[in-house]
Amino acid sequence: MADAPQHQAAPVARIHHLPPAVVERIAAGEVIERPASVVRELLENALDAGATAIRVELRAGGLRLIRVVDDGAGIAREDLPLAVAPHATSKVASLADLTDIRTLGFRGEALASIAAVAELEIASSANDGGLAAVLTATPDGEVLFSAAARARGTTVTAGDLFAAVPARQAVLRGPRGEATRALAVVRAYALAHPDVSFTLISDGVLTLQTHGTGLQAAVTAIYGADARAALLPLGPTAADDATITGGIAARAFSFAGREHVVIAVNRRPVANRGLLAAAEAGYRPLLRKGRHPLLIVNLTIPPERLDPNVHPAKAEVLLRDEAAIAAALRAAVHAALGAAPLMAGADTAGLGPRPVQLRLPAPRRRRGLRIADRASQGYSARPEPADAAGVDTTGLTAIGQFDDSLILARSAAGSLYLVDQHRLHERALYEQLKQRAPALTGSGSPSAAGQHEDDAVAGSHQLLLEPVLVELTPQQAVRLAHRAHELAGLGLGCQPFGGSVFLIRTLPEVPGGAQPLAAWAAELARAAAEDTDDWLDYLCISLACRSAIRRGDPLSPGEQQRLLDQLDRLTAPAVCPHGSPLLLRLSASYLTRTFEW
Ligand code: ADP
Ligand code: MG
Which of 39, 128, 246, 439 minimizes the number of CB atoms within 10 Å of its CB? Predict the structure, then answer.
């Protein structure tokens, strides 16, 4: 992590015009599209100046006024005019610098672009003399200088944004919509820079405040104690010379949209499709359909592996060897979420100082927030924060069965576990099926394919005494016919029988599965005909679900133990294939606290 860029108390850097050769290499395009773009640029400038506390004020969603106040290094008085000149910056000087960008800004364009569409005022002090130089610039090019009292740091104010650009005004959303977007920007930077204190005041209302005391505190301040309690650590995971850290809160704290998935590369929140897709591929199989977590990913990577100069608003970066990093991200997210049991805990005491209670994200988002009704699950306990000891699911010893549905178990560390027998078995069968499946569909590695081919063909299906007729929609029929070969490899033998009717003659044999599958032949065929690239996953889930021990099945002590022993081998031992939790943990310390032992 020696290469991690740091944004700390920088000495005052002098500003210069970029040479034409560098200007030519800079991604051109519209930098300032809406108030949120201004907020983003001004936050980046404050962070680059090493600010430890940043305050953002908005009026009318930023359309009337955006003000960002920082306690950073400030701008030298003589440099103020250069700060608003296009392609003038203190952050890069040569072409070589463009391949080794360690600051959030590097193009020297933001302030100039803001000055072109707003009334801009910059008050900055680069020393402890208590006096700031003030520059005022109007879109028509008028520039005034004055002075004001101010401690070290910079205040940038942009007023009446786009007042003279009617075309731009037409595509804006109005104060509420713009305020929501600006809030999302501040939130993302506050999460990506949890050691800096952020304050957002919107139309006089304190909307967000973090204290610069780390990620957990920032999550608590922004999302509340429930999110903090549900927050699981992500990583640290190494992928070559990159490191992934962060946190994820899901299940009891999840959203209908992706707006709380924040991926920061070297502390720059980005919208890289590849990384977002990888993160989602990590959590999607572990959450209920359509739910998204609160996810904060901090990817630290040597600057030379990274090109932030590909997008005019710097919203995307280009990563060398992105595929490897994406794979590591996917695995890290999957591991963090898949291994964490539900926790029963007393309360959120001991979480550190209570946050100043703040308004949560805009009401529209709030609606997407789902705090599970724990009472309705039969557990009135609140979750306790995950700790390093939170995952001790290996080596569980069965104690007994509750209502023929939950296995009670003890962990080596003395936790009491309640294990949903159906979901655990389902997870175990599903993972076995998935291991076999890639070889069958040819998407696995060649060696794996060779290794599994024999057992796949030999004895992996059961012949149905009576073939089952399944009527599908024409679209389903086309897809099923298309996949018939792969399905045969899995043991699902189906033949077209005229029109969109199929004849099912064999079904996959699920090793360790208990239920006869014939009754579900139609359901399996439909899962296999799903209109998605994930059809194989659907089929495996369906197979696992239908073959698994059910709630209500009595189990002998030996059967209970054999089921628990499977936990050790699972990649996501805490979550069933449908994304529901399967383990509830009552830690030894929770029991001690609760019973006042
Ligand atoms: P860039 O950030 O790409 O250099 P900007 O137009 O955003 O371009 O800013 C121009 C220059 O003004 C920066 O390089 C920096 O030297 C100075 N500057 C801008 N904002 C601040 C700030 N908040 N604190 C200190 N210096 C600043
Ligand atoms: Mg900048």
Answer: 128
- Number of Cβ within 10 Å of residue 521's Cβ equals 23
- pLDDT, averaged in runs of 10, over the chain (597 residues): 47 85 76 93 97 98 97 96 92 85 90 94 95 94 93 97 84 91 97 98 96 96 91 91 94 89 96 94 91 96 88 84 93 92 55 38 36 31 40 87 97 93 95 76 40 41 85 93 88 90 89 72 89 86 90 95 94 91 91 89
Q: What separation in Å is there between the alpha carbon of 118 and the centre of ligand 2?
A: 16
Closest-approaching ligand to the CA atom of 15? 1
Tell me the CA–centroid distance for residue 535 and ligand 1, in Å: 50
Distance between CA atoms of 286 and 77, rounded to whole angstroms?
55
- Residue ranges of alpha helices (H) inside 260-341 are 273-283, 322-338
Ligand 1 pocket test: pick from 15, 79, 84, 90 the residue with the most ligand atoms within 8 Å of its Cβ: 90
Task: Identify the residues whose C-beta falls under 6 Å from ligand 1.
Answer: 13, 15, 41, 45-46, 49, 70, 72-75, 83, 89-91, 105-112, 154
**Spatial CB neighbours of 226, under 8 Å, sequence gap ≥ 6:** 252, 253, 371
For ligand 1, atom 7: residue with the closest CA: 110
Taking the whole predicted model, whether its pTM rises above 0.90 is answered as no
